[in-house]
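Hello, quick one for you while I still have it in my head. No rush at all, and the record is pasted right below.
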Amino acid sequence: MNAETELWLFAVSVAASALGGMLGMASGIFIVPILTIFGHLDIRIAIGASIVSVIACSCGSAAPFLKERLTNVRLAIVLEIATTAGALSGVVLAGVIPTPYLFFMFGAILLLSAQQMLAKRREPALASATASVGRSTWQLDSTYPDRELGEDVAYRVQRLPIGMILMYCAGLSSALLGIGSGVLKVPAMDSALRLPIKVSSATSNFMIGATAAASASTYFVRGNIVVPIAGPVALGSVVGALLGARFLISISNDRIRLLFVAVLGALAAQMFLAAFGHGFYRGTT
């Protein structure tokens, strides 16, 4: 592999991880189609590189998000239980449900998520949340610093059972389609749990690294993680994740929401195309 190819892999991973890190999504959802279409790589090799990039992206942005108190670690641990259970179920069900139906359902879910996030243009009223912090049964409520307001904003985790169900579905879809579940985690936390969008993105980013790490060993044993390819991708992912974290901290909630809705719409269109055999993605486990 020549230096020009390595530089291209690095640049691609920086851009993908910056966008993915800012939105709390797995960067693999951008890296896989880029590597397969423009890099002409086998999709298994591309997925192996994306797994490494997701771990690097999550680790790279973890420190800034934790320092800024955007990540709700306790909530992430609770939700990861449901996501992991869904992923294990997806492994069992893989091959049973026709892939085109899965892509179509996934596209419909993405469109519904985009509609829900677009309708909710303002953060929920937080006046009552200030008084409720610390009294939650689950002790998952917290605060985060809002630079626009110049103060800490309290929020309360709501409708946790519904959120757990949606996280299970996110893990299930991720395992069945081979696509990062962050694209569903953020809308679930935003719409069901009523979390501020910055908290949703940061917490999702923290979770996707743990999910990817669980499957990385399998891809390595299968020989799908090629070091000359995964190396530049991982390095670029760390740089991109740090940039994405800075963007998330400084950009307004409404702009993040609109950007996320735009990405959801584009991905939904791709899922519908894939349902009819014209998409970039193919179901993998």
About this structure: The first strand starts at residue 142 and ends at 146. Residues 121-137 have pLDDT under 50 and may be disordered. The beta strands are 142-146, 151-155. Residues 3-275 form one domain.
